[in-house]
């Protein structure tokens, strides 16, 4: 059974570990006092868009809560409050994961059409003013963007933003993490789909397994707790490693999250390749029948969390396909080219970049965002319909 202290990296292809030593508890960053979300103007009006089509922004009923009133513009017609924003920093990646990018690659957007650093911060500041308190930086691979440390440092200054996190493939993590932490990075998700170096190269079509393991080690060594490890499970490829991944949580504060294989343009999704949450759970319970389900920390949590008693870490299941969590979705996404997506699996987008570059006022941008959020559907189309829909490849969405 694999464990972080037992893995070895060698040219002969044996499993490797670069995690070592004692691990310190991550000290919580000093809380920054956020200002109350400002009250929105009661009067909302039609906005002239470049297409000359006036879109009336309907006034939506506030989500019933005793908390500080949340922005009407980030609350959809089903009462879901969107306080979590994912921003893609780049379309580029130094890996070619089979479930994310077509083997032949993708047509990248010209640099001039991608969001600049200042545009990213401008949009982030706007969303935080409206109630967003968590921002996750994605890609492509966000850590290949040269100014990623500066972006995190600027986000860190935004009053009301509680959490800055990043999802990374881990290749550059060990080298950059000390600077990222100093800049204000709070949490890390690292993608790792196998513990076998040769299989790693097959899945991602590149070398680098030892660098990812080194990145996980560095995150633990610097006190991140938990360190989340994202593992996309595909039948016939890595479902035989489920127990090995669970074993990693015995001695270390890892949160291994098993993700159901999802359909995106170019990843050749097939229902037969998908291993459902319940099937994964049954396999794990055969080894650990006392696996305990944990209560959800937040209503909007995407993962069903479990823990083997006396293990330091835990495991989770992200069940986007078999048991969707649309009813509690609190996430919005901005692609690297500046488009707002209100649903990962939806193909409806609106360009915030174009409005920024046309010198739209803050109030105009807020109303454009509010219109998009207001049109968000109750739930996505379901796995079979999604697989037939035209959508961006995952690499161009940002997760």
TrEMBL record:
Residues 77-290 form the Radical SAM core domain. Isoform MOCS1A and isoform MOCS1B probably form a complex that catalyzes the conversion of 5'-GTP to cyclic pyranopterin monophosphate (cPMP). MOCS1A catalyzes the cyclization of GTP to (8S)-3',8-cyclo-7,8-dihydroguanosine 5'-triphosphate and MOCS1B catalyzes the subsequent conversion of (8S)-3',8-cyclo-7,8-dihydroguanosine 5'-triphosphate to cPMP. The gene is MOCS1. Isoform MOCS1A and isoform MOCS1B probably form a heterooligomer. InterPro entries: Aldolase_TIM, Elp3/MiaA/NifB-like_rSAM, MoaA, MoaA-like, MoaA_NifB_PqqE_Fe-S-bd_CS, MoaA_twitch, MoCo_biosynth_MoaA/MoaC, rSAM. It catalyses: (8S)-3',8-cyclo-7,8-dihydroguanosine 5'-triphosphate = cyclic pyranopterin phosphate + diphosphate; GTP + AH2 + S-adenosyl-L-methionine = (8S)-3',8-cyclo-7,8-dihydroguanosine 5'-triphosphate + 5'-deoxyadenosine + L-methionine + A + H(+). GO terms for biological process: Mo-molybdopterin cofactor biosynthetic process. Pathway: Cofactor biosynthesis; molybdopterin biosynthesis. This is Molybdenum cofactor biosynthesis protein 1. GO terms for molecular function: 4 iron, 4 sulfur cluster binding; cyclic pyranopterin monophosphate synthase activity; GTP 3',8'-cyclase activity; GTP binding; metal ion binding; S-adenosyl-L-methionine binding. Keywords: 4Fe-4S, GTP-binding, Iron, Iron-sulfur, Lyase, Metal-binding, Molybdenum cofactor biosynthesis, Nucleotide-binding, S-adenosyl-L-methionine. Its EC number is 4.1.99.22, 4.6.1.17. Its cofactor is [4Fe-4S] cluster. In the C-terminal section; belongs to the MoaC family. It holds the Pfam family Radical_SAM.
